[in-house]
Specification:
mainly alpha, 77% helix
Length: 425
């Protein structure tokens, strides 16, 4: 299943260089995201334009769906491509990075026309998210090629730790900008800074040294490719139960986009105050990234997903009992820790199979997340609009608990298998 020994040797030769430049890429990327946090800043931006909570649900749907849904449809293309970096760098610049450069114009448009601002925002944000989904499989497969299996957890942990640690600084700056500058100027500045750092992220990413795959891959038409996919789910029971559990855990995320909005509605907090929750989110995420990365390398990612799901459950239940907004620093901190575990879900998928079929497994898994992302935020928006936030959080916690129970009872740690799944396309 593994590539030939000469390629493995070349991977080790370039390992230190690739480790450093990709850590820098992730650091700049997460710093950029701190200025346009999908958990705090972007939902607040929408509430300035419209009080309709369905828009928050639509935003959550794009956040959860745009990145994940396209991935299965690109897996066959990635699987046939010798150098994955070319897709990430050349295609990704236009599909993922360019819309971030345009996002400040959506903020500035709010001073002229709220409808225009909302339309441009959803256009650019959907463009960015779906564009990221187009290149996501190639990025993950590139990482799997250039980072040895026993160092991926450390890489992901340090990369996201560095990004979220510097992102804390970005979150503090963003909160001050939102307090200092009148709407929409503060948001336009934050989005411009996001574009600045996303460009530096791309510059580091393009320095990756990837050894071309030498094994010839039989060209399979998309029709033949998709007809063979059900066979994977039929043969690999462990992977099938993993997908079911992750589908439910992602549906349980229906409430994440409403945490900040709930705090604003309940205590009438300023943008700067709510923006500071992003600092707690990033601190929690940096802790989770580093801790779970180390645990994943040593113990496997099964235990990481269990721990992360328990933390997510706590973050969903806690808002039901707090009586002071200061507790939301803990809520967002727990949410950040659970995000650290979620990133490790990307790594466990790589261990269900061998390298030749890895893009397909990644695509199936992430598109499953995308399917959950279509319905979960819209359900959350409906519950928040028609009922009360408490119903939303209770429902989300219940679904999360069911998903966790299925994962614990039905999914085995793939690293304990004697060999990778032998399914092929």
């Amino acid at each position: 299943m593994n590539d030939s020994t000469p390629i493995d040797a070349q991977v080790l030769i370039h390992y230190r260089h690739n480790f450093i430049v990709n850590i820098l890429d992730m650091t700049c990327f997460f710093l950029a995201m701190a200025f346009m946090s999908s958990s705090v800043i972007l939902p607040l931006f929408i509430t300035h334009i419209s009080t309709n909570k369905i828009y928050i649900g639509l935003f959550g749907m794009i956040s959860a769906t745009g990145f994940f849904l396209p991935q299965l449809f690109t897996a066959n293309w990635v699987q046939r491509t010798s150098i994955k970096r070319d897709i990430v760098v050349k295609v990704g610049f236009f599909t993922e990075r360019v819309p971030i450069f345009l996002l400040p114009f959506a903020a500035l448009a709010a001073a002229v026309s709220p409808l225009l601002a909302l339309s441009l925002f959803f256009l650019f944000y959907a463009w960015h998210n779906f564009g990221a989904g187009v290149t996501a499989v190639s990025w993950q497969d590139m990482v799997a090629k250039v980072i040895p299996i026993d160092r991926r957890g450390l890489f992901m942990g340090l990369g996201t730790f560095g990004g979220t640690a510097t992102g804390v600084i970005g979150a503090i700056i963003a909160a001050r900008l939102l307090d200092r500058f009148k709407f929409p100027s503060g948001y336009a500045i934050c989005f411009a800074l996001a574009g600045f750092f996303i460009l530096f992220s791309w510059l580091f990413l393009r320095l990756t040294r990837e050894v071309p795959s030498t094994k010839p891959k039989e060209i399979t038409s998309n029709k033949e490719y998709f007809l063979k996919l059900p066979g994977i789910l039929k043969l690999d029971h462990n992977f099938r139960w993993f997908l079911i559990s992750q589908l439910l855990l992602n549906v349980g995320g229906m409430a994440w986009s409403f945490l900040a909005v709930f705090a604003v509605d309940r205590w009438q907090l300023s943008d700067g105050y709510v923006g500071s929750f992003n600092t707690a989110l990033l601190i929690g995420q940096s802790i989770g990234n580093l801790l779970f990365g180390i645990i994943g390398d040593r113990k496997g990612y099964w235990v990481v997903i269990v721990c992360g799901s328990l933390v997510a459950l706590a973050a969903l239940v806690l808002p039901l009992f707090v009586t002071d907004p200061v507790w939301f620093y803990l809520v967002f901190g727990l949410r950040g820790i659970s995000l650290g575990a979620f990133f490790m879900t990307l790594l466990i998928v790589m261990e269900f199979c061998g390298s030749e079929i890895r893009p397909t497994y990644i695509g199936i898994s992430n598109t499953t997340f995308g399917i959950a992302g279509i319905f979960a935020p819209l359900i959350g928006g409906f519950l928040a609009q028609q009922a009360v936030y408490e119903v939303l959080f209770i429902t989300a916690a219940a679904v999360t608990l069911v998903g966790l129970m299925i994962f614990v009872l039905k999914v085995r740690e793939p690293r304990t298998k004697e060999e990778f799944q032998e399914t092929s396309l």
